[in-house]
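User: My advisor asked me to double-check a structure prediction for Flagellum site-determining protein YlxH before group meeting. I don't want to rely on an old file, so could you generate it fresh from this sequence?
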Amino acid sequence: MTTVITIASGKGGVGKSSLAINYALRLQAIAGNTLLVDADLLAANVHILLGHKPKKDLISVLDGECRITDAIQDTTGALSVLPGRTGASVKVEKDGDPLRDLIPQLRDTMDGTKFVVVDAPAGSGRSVLNSMANSDHVVIVLLGQATSFVDAYALIKNAYLEYRITQFNVVVNIADSKSQAQLVFDNFARTVANFLPVSLSYSGHVTQRDAIAQSAIRCKPIVQLPGEQRQIADFDTMLKNILASPRNSAKAADTTVNSVS
Ligand SMILES: Nc1ncnc2c1ncn2[C@@H]1O[C@H](COP(=O)(O)OP(=O)(O)OP(=O)(O)O)[C@@H](O)[C@H]1O
Ligand SMILES: [Mg+2]
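Assistant: Sure, here is a fresh prediction for Flagellum site-determining protein YlxH from the sequence you gave:
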C-alpha cells in the first residue's frame, strides 16, 4: 500500500519544498521506493533544488506527450521524482484542478511505491485541497508569524469545510528554539480549536539554519551534507510522528460539500 503525504502551508515561502525534499530523501534512505511529486505547476522548483535536469515533466503529462510513469525520473540518493517545469504556463479554469486525478492515478500505477511526498503550491486553491484530501497524511508548515497563522488557518478551514479533512500535522519551521516552536504550535492549535472541529498533531520543528538556506543555493539538500546527523535525526523524528498520526479519511472523489467534479 502506498502512503501519500502532502506538504502544504497556505502562505508561500515558508519552507514546503525544502521540507518535502528532505523528508522524501530520508524516506527513500530508510524505506526505499519513495516518489517526490512537484505539484506546484506554476512555480515548480524541486528539480532545481535537487540539481536535476528533467527530460520529461508533469507538463509533458498534462500535454499528453507521455504517461505519468515516463515522466518519473531517478535523481540524487536514488529518489524518484515527478518534476514540474520552470516557467510553465498552465491554463487553469476557475475552480479547476489539472492535477485532480494525479494521486489516484499514482496509487493505481505505482504499485511498488511505498511513499509519495507531494510538494503542494502555496495558497488554498483547488489543487492543494484535492491533494490534501487524497493524501493519507497532511502536513501544514507553519511559521511564528501572523501572516503564516492566517493563511494556515484559512487552508485548514477550507480543507474542513469543503472536504471534511479533520486530521492535520503541523511542523513549525524557521523557529528560534524548541520551546519557541512549541509555543507557536500551542497558540495556533488554540486558535484553531476555538473555531474548527479538527485535530492538529505537532510533528516537530526546524530551527532557522544558515545551512538550510545555503543548501538551496548549492542545490544540495541538507540531509545529504556531511556533519548533519543531528538534523537528519530531527527529520526522522518528524517523519515518525507524521506516519504515526491518524490517517486522513477524507477522499476528494467522494466529497459532496462544495466540490467540483
Ligand atoms: N529552517 C530554515 N532555515 C533557514 N532557511 C530556510 C529554512 N527553511 C526554508 N528556508 C529557506 O526559505 C526559503 C523558502 O523555502 P522553500 O522554497 O522551501 O519554501 P516554499 O514554502 O516551498 O516556497 P513556495 O511557496 O514559493 O513554494 C528558501 O530559501 C529556503 O532555503
Ligand atoms: Mg515550494
